[in-house]
């Protein structure tokens, strides 16, 4: 018997016909409930489909196509209306006053930092920047109810997640300038933050690649939660925009997360535009939330301008994600991207300025929370003015310090990939060193920490 034929027979052998069962051993355990009907044939009197590919579907003799346009859109959950009034007085906001003030401070801080850094890029002091205007409540609100040990995968507009978790202004500025104190050693472009200390994976420019990474990490966390019951269970949380949901990575990730039943929350920031492409040209279905049930995932749509709704939804999603060993959840957070896509974009080339100004005036997460605070006599114009002045000074102070720091040592361009330099890398180091020594007027190595000496040290250490 050939190996191929033998393997095929083993693959299709029924569990109850195995040698162990024939010798009187106990039969294998019963399959999980969600798999129970997969091998049951349909009976003559069955009223529901028992095909493996469509369990529990009722038979019908009426020919009727499912027409999405005839169905009502998925509702959008909110706690506050746009005037800052609580809609359900009995339930309230699930947030203490002191905590609400801290959330507001972080949102204002993020807003001011975005404005100052955008201007700094226009002045040529930064090479690139992306703002979070209109989406501050999504990042800060969701991060505020997650466990610090939960593993997070961001896209590039989640600066608020870092801020809420404790990433300092100095760390932001060091990364934006790619200076010697940047934890990424200057290897990433601006706003591509990362922090192993805060359990946040480094941001990647490539769209949607973090989504399958999050699904894989969640599967690892599921196994870890099972094997280490004495440790508080963790989940993976993934952020992305509605444009990223058009990538194949999105569909592959959600499918494997659902079939493997992993503890994960997928948070989509639907801000209306994927760079210059409006949602009307992105999809015809009911947003991104409409795709969740198709993958068998618990799904919710939330008003992203309502930080209390964001917090409550994320908190409940985390509880669901840890049910029965693991369960993925999809949340679509609705917002409007007030700013340009990035400093490389002019959004008024594809949308009317009046549209943006209308959203700024009508509703945004900072204004809505401020109205709620003022309604409880926790905030006023004097406090607002003092806070903005204080935060502006702190941000500019961190900015000035970071701008004066030296660039990372040149040796970091070759380190961190292999445990030791390869022969090819050593040749590259020698070649670079030779060029820098022969053309000192062309290359300012003194702006780098250690100057040319860092390459000499690297080669000495490697011998």
Write structural notes for this entry:
There is one protein chain. With 463 residues, the chain is an alpha/beta fold. The protein has helices at 3-12, 19-22, 97-122, 136-143, 159-165, 169-177, 210-227, 248-260, 307-321, 353-362, 365-375, 381-404, 423-438, 453-462, and strands spanning 151-153, 200-201, 236-241, 264-270, 273-274, 277-278, 298-303, 329-334. The chain folds into 3 domains: 13-60, no CATH class; 76-404, Thiamin diphosphate (ThDP)-binding fold, Pyr/PP domains (Rossmann fold, 3-Layer(aba) Sandwich), CATH 3.40.50; 410-462, no CATH class. 39% of the residues lie in helices and 7% in strands. The chain has a 6-stranded parallel sheet, sandwiched between helices. Strands 5-6 form a two-stranded antiparallel sheet. α3 (97-122) runs antiparallel to α11 (365-375), α6 (169-177) packs across α12 and α7 runs parallel beside α8. The model is unreliable at 1-22 (pLDDT under 50).
Topology diagram in text:
Elements: H1 3-12, H2 19-22, H3 97-122, H4 136-143, E1 151-153, H5 159-165, H6 169-177, E2 200-201, H7 210-227, E3 236-241, H8 248-260, E4 264-270, E5 273-274, E6 277-278, E7 298-303, H9 307-321, E8 329-334, H10 353-362, H11 365-375, H12 381-404, H13 423-438, H14 453-462
Parallel strand pairs: 1-2, 1-3, 3-4, 4-8, 7-8
Antiparallel strand pairs: 5-6
Helix pairs in contact: 3-4, 3-5, 3-11, 3-12, 4-5, 4-9, 6-12, 7-8
Organism: Lindgomyces ingoldianus
Protein name: Thiamine diphosphate-binding protein
């Amino acid at each position: 018997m050939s190996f191929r034929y033998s393997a095929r027979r083993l693959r299709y052998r029924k569990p109850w016909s195995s040698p162990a069962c024939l010798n009187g051993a106990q039969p294998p355990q019963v399959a999980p409930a969600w798999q129970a009907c997969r091998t049951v044939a349909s009976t003559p009197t069955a009223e529901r489909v028992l095909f493996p590919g469509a369990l529990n579907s009722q038979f019908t003799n009426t020919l009727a196509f499912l027409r999405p346009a005839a169905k009502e859109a998925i509702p959008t959950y909110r706690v506050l209306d746009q005037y800052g009034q609580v809609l359900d007085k009995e339930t309230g906001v699930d947030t203490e006053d002191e905590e609400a003030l801290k959330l507001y401070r972080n949102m204002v801080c993020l807003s001011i930092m975005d404005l100052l850094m955008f201007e700094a890029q226009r002045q040529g002091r930064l090479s690139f920047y992306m703002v979070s205007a209109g989406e501050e409540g999504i990042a800060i609100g969701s991060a505020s109810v997650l466990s610090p040990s939960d593993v997070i995968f961001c896209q590039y507009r989640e600066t608020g997640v870092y801020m809420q978790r404790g990433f300092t202004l100095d760390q932001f500025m060091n990364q934006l300038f790619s200076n010697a104190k940047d934890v990424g050693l200057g290897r990433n472009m601006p706003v591509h933050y990362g922090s192993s200390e805060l359990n946040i994976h480094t941001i990647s420019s490539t769209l949607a690649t973090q989504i399958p990474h999050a699904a894989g990490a969640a599967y690892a966390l599921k196994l870890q939660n099972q094997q280490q019951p004495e440790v508080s269970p963790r989940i993976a949380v993934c952020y992305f925009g509605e444009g990223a949901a058009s990538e194949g990575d999105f569909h592959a990730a959600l499918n494997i997360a659902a079939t493997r039943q992993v503890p994960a929350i997928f948070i989509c920031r639907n801000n209306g535009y994927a760079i210059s492409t409006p949602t009307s040209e992105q999809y015809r279905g009911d947003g991104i939330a409409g795709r969740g049930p198709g993958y068998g995932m618990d799904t919710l749509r939330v008003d992203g301008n309502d930080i209390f709704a964001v917090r409550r939804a994320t908190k409940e999603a985390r509880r669901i994600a840890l049910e029965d060993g693991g369960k993925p959840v999809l949340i679509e957070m609705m917002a409007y991207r007030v700013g340009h896509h990035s400093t490389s974009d002019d959004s008024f080339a594809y949308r009317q300025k009046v549209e943006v100004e209308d959203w700024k005036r009508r509703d945004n997460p900072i204004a809505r929370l401020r109205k709620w605070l003022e309604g409880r006599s926790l905030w006023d114009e004097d406090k607002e003015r003092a806070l903005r002045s204080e935060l502006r000074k702190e941000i500019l102070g961190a900015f000035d310090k970071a701008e004066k720091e030296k660039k990372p040592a040149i040796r970091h361009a070759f380190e961190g990939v292999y445990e030791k330099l390869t022969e090819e890398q050593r040749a590259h180091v020698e070649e670079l060193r030779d060029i820098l020594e022969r053309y000192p007027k062309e290359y300012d190595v003194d702006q780098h920490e250690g100057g040319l000496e860092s390459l000499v040290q690297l080669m000495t250490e490697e011998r």
